[in-house]
Design a protein that fits this description.
Layout lengths: L9 H9 L4 E3 L3 E2 H5 L3 H4 L10 E7 L3 H10 L7 E6 L4 H4 L11 H14 L4 E6 L9 H11 L3 E5 L13 H10 L4 E4 L5 H11 L3 E3 L10 H10 L8 H36 L5 H10 L3 H12 L4
Helix pairs in contact: 1-11, 4-6, 6-7, 9-10, 11-12, 11-13, 12-13
The structure holds flavin mononucleotide.
Length: 307
């Protein structure tokens, strides 16, 4: 599962692992927030014991801060540390973080070398094709990462200028795979298991990251697994969707409390119900609901009664 700020928290990651995800990343976490012991940032540094392989994704750009933080972080419950070099959001880019790093080749080299040296865990990178159509340098950055001792690279096949428009360029992803000997993960526009398998076969990548395709559909991992193993896949029944939303809701409540939990679950519930006939009114009712009991009641009527 790709990192998704506001989505891939501990609770949703657990749901995805239960449905067959092989690995996940945290939401992006500010390395400065960790350095300054910001209590909100500390909440991102948790992993539930039931979770499988989880990478902690950091954003920032100062080698000194990364070096200090990684040197001090003992006993992290994660499998690897990932550097965010893909986020296109203006508030991130204006600080020289996220995809702005794609334009700072020398800084990237220094940053990755520092990370590899100081990190107690393997270091990975998630990047874009480059800043813009005219500045595509993923092959160069990929090589720098490999030479710096980075353990794997994930490439989202868009430039920063594209944000999320246009199409992810999987030929570019295939060319990165061809040019490096460390594992390369491809990312971009996989919304069905079939697309995922096709992309893997065509590009020969070592794995794929699925982002928007998991919103409301953690079953995409089970579907993918079935496809790879040549087994039949049955989509979840409405009752299974109901049970999953409730289980997810309970986890979020436990983790984040009633107020934040409610806001989060309104968003997730809308995604879970997407594509189901007659969901419009239900989504509006959920958005107007004030607590867990109300949401449960609305969902039960929609998903658990024959009509
Ligand atoms: C809501 C949202 C939040 C995201 N947050 C992150 C993030 O924290 N770190 C990151 O590297 N990429 C982030 N991304 C980018 C995704 O990981 C992924 O690269 C992108 O969505 C393309 O993959 P997809 O087509 O499968 O969604 C985010 C994307 C979305 C839509």
């Amino acid at each position: 599962m790709a990192p998704l700020a506001g989505v891939t928290d501990k609770s949703f990651r657990r749901i995805c692992f239960e449905k067959g995800a092989q690995g996940a990343l945290t939401e992006m976490v500010s390395v400065k927030g960790i350095a300054y012991h910001d209590p909100k940032t500390a909440a991102y540094l948790q992993r539930h014991v039931d979770e499988k392989v989880v990478g902690l994704q950091l954003f920032g750009h100062e080698p000194e801060i990364f070096g200090q933080v990684l040197g001090e972080l003992d006993d992290l419950p994660f499998a690897f540390i990932d550097l965010n070099m893909g986020c296109p959001a203006p508030k991130i880019v204006k600080n020289q973080d996220g995809s702005a790093l794609m334009r700072e080749v020398k800084l990237v080299e220094k940053l990755l070398k520092t990370m590899v040296k100081e990190s107690p865990l393997p270091v990975t990178v998630k990047m874009r094709l480059g800043w813009s159509e005219e500045e595509k340098n993923f092959l160069e950055i990929g090589k720098i990462a490999e030479d710096a001792g980075v353990s794997a690279v994930a490439l989202h096949g868009r430039t920063r200028s594209m944000f999320y428009s246009g199409k992810a360029d999987w030929e570019a992803i295939a060319s990165l795979k061809e040019s490096l000997s460390i594992p390369v993960y491809g990312n971009g526009d996989i919304f069905t298991a079939k697309q995922g398998l096709e992309r893997m076969q065509q590009s020969h990548v070592d794995g794929i990251l699925i982002g928007r395709g998991v919103l409301g559909n953690p079953w995409i991992f089970a579907e993918m697994e079935a496809l790879i193993e040549g087994r039949a896949y049955t989509a979840p029944t409405k009752k299974e969707i109901y049970d999953t939303i409730l289980r997810h809701y309970h986890m979020v409540l436990e983790d984040k409390g009633e107020r934040v939990g409610l806001l989060q679950m309104r968003k997730h519930a809308a995604w879970y119900l997407k594509g189901l006939e007659g969901n419009g009114k239900v989504r509006s009712a959920i958005n107007a609901s004030l607590n867990m009991e109300e949401i449960q009641d609305i969902l039960q009527r929609f998903l658990c009664t024959e009509n």
